[in-house]
Design goal:
The structure is a homodimer. The first copy, chain A, has a domain at 2-247. The first copy, chain A, has helices spanning 5-21, 23-32, 37-57, 67-95, 102-113, 129-157, 160-170, 182-206, 211-222, 240-253, 257-266, 270-274, 276-298, 304-319, 335-346, 359-377, 394-420, 425-436, 457-471, 475-480, 483-486, and strands spanning 386-387, 390-391. Chain A has a two-stranded antiparallel sheet. In chain A, a hairpin with a 2-residue loop joins strand 1 (386-387) and strand 2 (390-391). The termini of chain A are close together. The first copy, chain A, is mainly alpha-helical. The first copy, chain A, contains 21 helices and two strands. At the A-B interface, helix 4, helix 15, helix 16, helix 17 and helix 20 of A face helix 4, helix 15, helix 16, helix 17 and helix 20 of B. One potassium ion binds next to loops of chain A.
């Protein structure tokens, strides 16, 4: 057990910093006088105290972390931080006379921090503004945390997507590397994230949102989170301009943040546009939008202009795992929402706040499959798998294979568990996909106009578990279940 | 083009032999006097003439086949033979005043030869006996063809499952090898197949079936085909004894036929029972039966005895890709039929007449994933993937990876095509899975009590394509689409 004390020490530090985040809704509660200041202040104090106690109490255990420690740390973070985010959520909702149970509150917190954006709450417009700020700010924090995880911490652990990621940046832009030290890398990425956030906020504000709406929707756009302060989501604004701004920022945020970092640092953008994953992500999202638009047009749902507007917006919103909606797209022919949900499994880049399989894995799988085809015809052909200018190592291909198996088995098993609990197959599979890809809205009863509160507590827990698994790139969590993990 | 003449020559030979198969329904038509003798006689004559013309006309092109020729031959065989099987099917049904269109007739023939067992025909009990004999005999022929393909021809081409298969038999039973020459191997396997067939026929007959029913159901049991001469399928007999016999032969036929061959040849069975794929297949089918039985019991569908009887029979029937039914199991909680359909994707062994992913690939995937988990925790660990006593080569793992990608992409794309054509998602996905796994009955409108004739012609063609793809182990057909295939 004491083997894991250094992990708990770091966790204490993370919780301490996290508690400071509660000052954002506290400030909003103060400026907007929504009567919930005490909730945020006391929750922050409790979280700070717990974090600081853990951090300080275990300060003797400052030690270099090993891979298994890293896996443990990351897994525990995504389980524990939502717990402390749940405290003010339950408290505040209770104080305004709309209490929710722990299952729902924890789900809402996990959905926030993992940037999933599924919700069990209704009548969002009637909520005190600080609650909505907290919900959306959780996504922004989660997005930031993921970037550091994906770019700075996970590569050190050699975990799935990050391994790929390392390979990725080493490829087309071989001469320059990400700043090798974790701290500096993290700072650089946060710089990009902050710049994007500021730009997105200003664009929304200039485009006609109120300042507070611009902030909340900025929070959930750059993090690909998709929560909104309005029940109508983006339809509330009824503004093609704002929809266009959202599309641009969702596209930008679906790409690898490290590419921006490197391009800005080097001052030229040639390598940026040549990056195969970036091209893949943009092609998938824009191409997906065209497919949906064509289907809507061909099936006579809309005329050409509306088909393009609604098709593009929703395909990019759902495909990028964000999940904003302007219309209840479940009323469309079922091909469209299903296609968009599947798109969200593959479209986003590693090194973004997106979830799911990630474009880089898709590219490796396709190239590897193409090589096998050639081998069928020319058995003696020797051909490496390449991505951009780089040869993909066998170990990376093996890790992609393992990821795909775990992804498939997890998705199917959790869906079957929901089916066993008497959920219909379409709702079950889409709820799990929407959770494991951190997309948010699914199909059936958990669609964009529906709500995860129709599920039983058991079903909500399954989805909560799926969100955490998806966020952890699956493997790292599953690794916890292997006996070799617990052997010293 | 002349490059492919040697392929057409072999195809001519195959067609010539295939035409002889039409004498089976001809004999039955004669002994049962069902008035269709002319159909079988003329169809046989036409097929024989076409085959012989092709064979004879291209006799100058007798040449050693290269891998690309083999792929072309195999693909063309599964497209062309059903075409000639369609001729008497349409003719006979037309003569009895129940004409069907070409789309349906071709579907029925492909469903027969690929051992899928999906049907567009209704009122089977009212059909002239020779038509039912032809339908079921097609499955028996198809099963035999697959065994030779899988065991004797495909390994020479290095195609997917067969490459695995080579690896497989080289493993636990390293010292003995399948007789190296194709002809001898094929003879040995046909010997096993014939022995199984004789035993199954006698068991069914002794168990209470009429001789003709015993023959037809033997045809579709040992080939894991699942067609029946009765609308009620196995419920017609209402005999737990016959159901038990079917279960035993379905289990036996789901295993690798080469294992029987080797065990019989060597005269001892230790290696047989130690084979990891055999254990995997039996565990999956029997374990799957227990799961279904438990679910039926827990959900209060049946008492313990009936839950075990119906759960076991249907899980093994569907899971082994056979598809016999005693009850309309779509009335069960949807978990059960969905679970059985998924089981049919993975349960059967390579070297059986089963279809889908095959147990050997599942085992390799699982072991490979387990290795990656260990690597996450101990990055420097070097650990080969083993199956039984054998180390699985990297190339095999890569080919499994490619297969899984093509399997996933094919299944999802074809399902989405059906959804696009306005089929509901559950029917669409299950129809494609039931086709690509050669299972037969799906869910929704294409369930065990339903029928593929509810689909539009376009949808029927998609399913036909899926059956052929599944039978070709996907890769070989997809290889036809790569440019390098057509380059000399
Ligand atoms: K989301
Ligand atoms: K079948």
């Amino acid at each position: 057990m004491s083997d894991f004390f250094p992990v708990l020490r770091v966790l204490g530090a993370l919780l301490t910093f996290f508690s400071l985040g509660m000052f954002v809704p506290w400030i909003i509660s103060w400026t907007h006088a929504d009567g919930l200041r005490h909730v945020w202040a006391f929750s922050a104090a409790i979280s700070f105290a717990c974090g600081a106690a853990l951090w300080g109490g275990l300060r003797r255990y400052k030690r270099e972390l090993q891979p298994r420690h890293g896996i443990f740390l990351v897994s525990l973070t995504w389980v524990l931080l939502p717990l402390f985010a749940t405290l003010p959520m339950m408290w505040a909702l209770n104080d305004i006379g709309r209490p929710i149970n722990f299952t729902h509150a924890y789900f809402e917190s996990v959905s926030g921090l993992t940037t999933t954006g599924a919700t069990v709450l209704a009548r969002l417009d009637a909520l005190p503004v600080s609650i909505n700020v907290w919900r959306t700010f959780l996504q922004w924090l989660g997005g930031m945390g993921i970037l550091v995880l994906a770019v700075a911490i996970l590569p050190l652990l050699g975990v799935g997507g990050s391994q790929l990621f390392k390979a990725e940046v080493a490829g087309p832009i071989k001469d320059s590397k990400l700043t090798p030290r974790v701290k500096e890398t993290a700072k650089g990425l946060w710089g990009i994230y902050a710049t994007f956030s500021a730009a997105c906020f200003l664009a929304y504000w200039a485009g006609g949102m109120s300042a507070i709406d611009a902030m909340m929707h900025m929070f959930t756009t750059v993090s690909l989170g998709g929560l909104s302060s309005h029940d109508a989501s983006f339809a509330y604004f009824a503004s093609p301009l704002l929809e266009g701004i959202a599309v641009i920022f969702m596209l930008a945020a679906s790409c690898n943040f490290a590419l921006y970092f490197i391009a800005l640092r080097k001052g030229h953008w040639r390598g940026f546009w040549r990056d195969p994953e970036l091209r893949g992500t943009l092609a998938a999202l824009v191409g997906g939008g065209l497919v949906v638009a064509l289907v809507l047009l061909a099936k006579g749902v809309y005329g050409p202009v509306d088909a393009l507007r609604y098709g593009m917006f929703h395909a990019i919103s759902v495909g990028s795992t964000t999940g904003f909606a302007i219309v209840d797209y479940l009323a469309w022919p079922v091909f469209a929402p299903l296609f968009m949900l599947l798109l969200s499994s593959v479209a986003t880049s590693a090194g973004s706040a997106g979830c799911g399989i990630k474009m880089v894995r898709v590219l490796i799988l396709v190239k590897q499959a193409r090589r096998e085809m050639t081998r069928l015809v020319h058995p003696r052909a020797v051909q490496p798998v390449t991505l951009g200018a780089m040869v993909v190592d066998h170990r990376v291909i093996f890790s992609v294979l393992a990821f795909m198996l775990v992804y498939g088995v997890t998705t199917i098993s959790l869906s079957m568990l929901l089916v066993l609990s008497d959920l219909d197959p379409v709702t079950a599979f889409s709820a799990v996909l929407a959770s494991v890809n951190c997309t948010g809205p699914g199909l059936g009863s958990v669609g964009p106009a529906g709500n995860f509160s129709v599920l039983t507590d058991f079903q909500v827990w399954v989805c909560t578990f799926a969100m955490v698994l998806g966020r952890l790139e699956l493997l790292s969590f599953i690794a916890l279940l292997t006996p070799s993990f617990w052997r010293k």
